[in-house]
Amino acid sequence: MLRAVGAGSLEELVHVPDAVAVRAPISVPPALAESQLLDRMTALAGRNSAQEYTSFLGAGAYRHYVPPVIAALSMRGEFLTSYTPYQAEVSQGYLQAIYEWQTYVALLTGLDVANASVYDGATALAEGAIMAVNATGRRKMLVSRAVHPNYRAVLQTYADGMELRIDELAYSSDGRTDFSGLAEAVGGKGYAAVVVQSPNFFGTIDPLPRDLAATLRASGTLLISVTAEALALAALATPASWGADIAVGEGQSFGVAVAYGGPHVGFIATTNEHLRRIPGRLVGKTLDKEGRDAYVLTLQAREQHIRREKATSNICTNQAHCALTATIYLAALGRTGLNACASLNLRRAHELVKRVGALQGFERRFGAHFFNEVVVRVPGRAADVLTYLEGCKILGGVDLGRWYPELRDCVLMAATELTTQAQIARLVAALSEFTTRPGARVAVRD
Amino acid sequence: MPSGTEREPIPLIFETGQDGRANRYFEDGPEIAELLPRKLVRDELPLPDNSELDVVRHFTRLSQRTFGIDSAFYPLGSCTMKYNPRVNEAAAALPPLRDLHPFAPDALSQGALAIMWELERALSSLFGMAAFSLNPAAGAHAELAALLISKAYFAARGESARNAVIVPDTAHGTNPASAAMVGYKVISLKSDARGRVDPIVLREAVGANTAVCMMTNPNTLGLFEDHIAEIARVVHDAGGLMYYDGANANALMGNARPGDMGFDLMHLNLHKTFSIPHGGGGAGAGPLGVAAHLVDFLPTPVVTASGGSGNGWRASDDEVFRLEFERPLSIGPMRSFWSNFAHVVRALTYVYANGLEGLSRVSQLAVLNANYVRAGLRDVLDIPYDEPCRHEFVASAQTLKRETGVRALDLAKALLDRGYHAPTIYFPLLVPECLMVEPTETESKETLDGFIEALKEIVATAQANPAAILSAPRLTPVGRLDEARAARQPDLRWRPPEPPSGSAPSWSRLI
Lengths: 446, 511
Known about the structure:
The complex is a heterodimer of chains A (446) and B (511).
Chain A lengths: L1 H4 L4 H4 L20 H12 L8 E2 L12 H7 L2 H4 L11 H18 L3 E2 L6 H16 L3 E5 L4 H14 L2 E5 L12 H6 L3 E7 L12 H9 L3 E6 L18 E5 L15 E5 L12 E5 L5 E5 L6 H4 L12 H38 L5 E2 L8 E5 L4 H10 L2 E2 L2 E2 L10 E5 L6 H16 L3 H6 L1
Parallel strand pairs in A: 1-13, 3-4, 3-5, 5-6, 6-7
Antiparallel strand pairs in A: 2-8, 7-8, 9-10, 11-12, 12-15, 14-15
Helix pairs in contact in A: 4-12, 6-12, 7-8, 12-14
Chain B lengths: L12 H4 L15 H4 L16 H13 L21 H7 L2 H4 L11 H18 L3 E3 L5 H18 L7 E5 L5 H8 L3 E5 L9 H7 L4 E7 L11 H10 L3 E5 L19 E3 L2 H4 L14 E3 L11 E5 L13 E5 L16 H37 L15 E4 L1 H7 L3 H10 L6 E2 L8 E4 L7 H20 L1 H5 L12 H6 L23
Parallel strand pairs in B: 2-3, 2-4, 4-5, 5-6
Antiparallel strand pairs in B: 1-7, 6-7, 8-9, 10-12, 11-12
Helix pairs in contact in B: 4-12, 6-12, 7-8, 12-15
């Protein structure tokens, strides 16, 4: 082959001018035979110990039951090793699966259309905000403080670059967004959108009150809904029903591994009115030249490879395989399975809060209705309680003081269909030990 | 490869569901309305119930109508469709990694943090950068992060007036799109007759407003930008930063380093160079590398190590890792959680499988294969820049089109009928009727010979009987698509049929 290409050596083919030759020795791991590879990776994985703990962690990433059939199908080589379906004639299968995903997202959110996916929940929010800015020509966003703090931080990163202003709506004493000043705030017609999450970061069901949807519309302000726990969409009134123009969120709960935070799958749905502002890939149904039903990437004039600097977004690679996984999950569970799963999540979270709330010194921090997560006020600092629980091999939840200084005594706890009575009993026993341990009163007085 | 005989449409999953076909994955729960007030609960959940067997058959059939690398040769230029080793999947599926929660305490996540740290160190050394962030989710996402870094960097230096990004006309569309997202003005640079950036032309484009020059090297014509040292000097002299678009990093891994070429920022596409499956369009991963003067601006969090006796790439057993969020100069986080971690695992597995020698050899063989196909097609198609290429090259059907009316698009469709995926077509924009071919290192000589022969036969057929090529593809599940109709009358989702007598379909009834 070297002769065919007229080269003397492999090195000659990759030669670069001396001025830019490799300047320092390169240090990467030495090669391992495949028979040793998994030993090395298993040894590294073995330095994790979280897998030995009972977990009540949620906060935007949820442990759910994933039927084995999901991976058996999603990991089929044709799906796994294909790329963006530019050649539609040999990609009809994947294109149809994405069309089905778009349909599932539209049906779950109640909106007209959805895209083929974006990176994750936080970037979905950022892209949704860009849609709202482009739709309204306004450069301010009004965001509930009960939106996931990580999502708000990412929105801020994007906003810094785009020179957008982010204002905040406070949360009220029952754990819902305080909408009392909303009408006045949007009355000045300066906001592109109001951003509300439901269930919000505290687990509280927090839709925009219905009378305010008309207020937003009258002021030309869009409503962006955020969903970090997609399973809730199967149970709760749809974002469209409470007025969302753009529904964004995270689909990890639909069969995608938690995997230390990624890859997960962001979704964006909207009304027909804003269809052409949606970022990224869209699959449409059309006909082939013989009149057969067929699927194809469409409305590409929005996209970076056609429009370059005038595109609606720079997104190219998305999260197609995670969206496929979610589609298979939704197909396997169906209405009945999703309904059962959602109701078990509700029940387990209610059991959790009932048992924990019955302990001396522990109580629900917020009174409003919740889905599968709840904020528990603990005696003393949340960090101390969580450290104590770690000693009992329990990950008790997330310390809200990390983002909300006023909630330093609060833990966000999640329960899913995988949370058992026995796990809740262990948590309750450990919390009860915490309050009666030697020196406990000192900690409480802090 | 989809069978040519199977051309019946596959019903949508929404059209096949029936009541009573639900799978029993969960015990019975209470009615949702028993736990929540009615007004908070949705009225209906209009999703079908399908038996697991029907779901298996549905998605198996869909997979059979999907072309992957596993199906056959997939020479999609600039996408690096190399074999995806399955050992990577086994590593990513290890339960302590797959099931690790992002909010698990650092002390209980040392393995995951060690994996992230080792990959960062290996990439930094391999590409000559001071540090990498694994935060961005894809190449375009890393471009955006890099431009945010440039904004923060210039703001910190009191040079916020810098508002222009220079991109060659061979650049990927993501480059100008990313620049526009942060409000930068885009200056497009015309390539010279050799398909490269001319430092003299560049010198006229740079100035006091230059923020960043974004380059792909080798560029999308598969040509090494041999003036790169001077280009970097011109941009740096003007006070700008150099950004390396790593889409084509498979051409130089272990053999040359963007850091040594003068680049200040760069991204990699782990789903290209590091053998991670493309998954039908994602997920990818876009690690972002920076030179020393930009490390403080990287997205949060970053993985830090302390107390260890290790050096270089290896995480020693006594090293303690943590996620650091408090970084005052950081642009902030780019995504919900820390990285596309499962891809980090796959990429590190690939690094371990190859070592430095193997990774260097990967690039050498990728370049050899591209040149072999180029040499084989020299008498078949126009090769506008006919000189030794790197990992990919661009051919053109301009002469063929003039002589026969057969275009690049038609060649692409004819290849589908012959069991090959098409190359990238009509990109880069400056070559008319172009086909951008990237064979990758994982293909055998026999496969490359088969592809060359197929294109020879297609071109010969086109010259004898153009209609035979213009009507391709004929053996695929569907023929050419009416794309204008798709855009004019967007049909982006299935809708439930209108109930005939005002009654909802049984499976969409109230919960």
